[in-house]
UniProtKB/TrEMBL annotation:
This is Serine hydrolase. It comes from the Bacteria. The lineage of its organism: Bacteria, Pseudomonadati, Balneolota, Balneolia, Balneolales. The keyword Signal does not apply. Residues 148-170 are annotated as: Disordered. The keyword Transferase does not apply. Coiled coil: none annotated. GO terms for molecular function: hydrolase activity.
Amino acid sequence: MKSILYIIGLFLIATSVNGQGLGQGTIEAPVNYWPVANPDTLDLNKEALQSHLERCRRSGASGCLVAYKGYIVQQWYRPKDYLPWIGTRSAVKSWTGLLTGILIKDGSIESIDDPVAKYIPEWTAGAKAGVTIRHLLTMTAGLRDHTGGEITVPRVDQPHDNKNRHPGVVGQKNHNAYVLDLELDWPPGKHFSYSNEGVQLLSPILKRAAGMPVSQYARERLFNPLKMDSTIMLVDEYHNTVTFGGTRTTLRDFAKIGQLMLNKGNWNGHQIVSTSWVEQSTTSSPIMKNYGFLWWLDPERSNYAAAGSGDNNCIVFPDIELVVARLQRDRFNKATVKYQSTETLELIRSIVVENTAQAK
């Protein structure tokens, strides 16, 4: 059975690695298809790869992909999962961070320390005038999550009360109108609080800076260059781009963002986003060591991730040139193991690290 799973998990045609991996070509000779490679030719730990495949399957995933040095070395889809696209959930927050970096590269946003009020007139008074784009990128704007999760820091103007819950931006028809009307829960720059509302506030800012809907800008400046033809950002009933969650994509398109990050923002000779932005995005903020610019960080195991509920994750291990993507269609799918865990991360690292150590 294990051998059958391993064969299913490796849709491999190539027997050796020649040339360059995905996105690692040049403007004149781009690499747009995703080449596959036999793990044997790359001296990878096949036992660890197989264990990862089985763990992915048992976790209730719809599919998983492992790429090493720009080559697919493992790819698996759950049988009878017919729809090609899956929602990313909150993993799209990291994409929103990338779009911010592209706008800065273009000069459409001068600095991440620009006040939000520069783009949103409604935020020019009181404490909200002190909120910057940096605060939104690092989840330190002073907005709590309004979707019903526990409030870890009391509001400035009222006692801590977890009974006063409502669906927040997730339950709104007009996402932007809702977040524009919010008041701060505490002063900006003081606390980390994972907030859907804070990331949605970037939607009107990016739209104003880009001069077009964020979904269109994402298509032109990010999805098209990466040939992410099966990916679309969602919009609400008022045509506001949803920047905190959702986005329909495929496993390969999802993994391409991780490969772009691994390539330090370069794609076939085009610098999609600056190398410095990739570095800043994956550097711990002063308030939260496990968070950068809308990317989750794991300094202990040297990786970072675009992560959403249901373990919809794209994890990048830059030091070993590994990208791992996992998507799950059914949030409540029955599983016998938990995918997002220290055990899984250490298993993934062993695909390269342990085998390299054995070779020595």
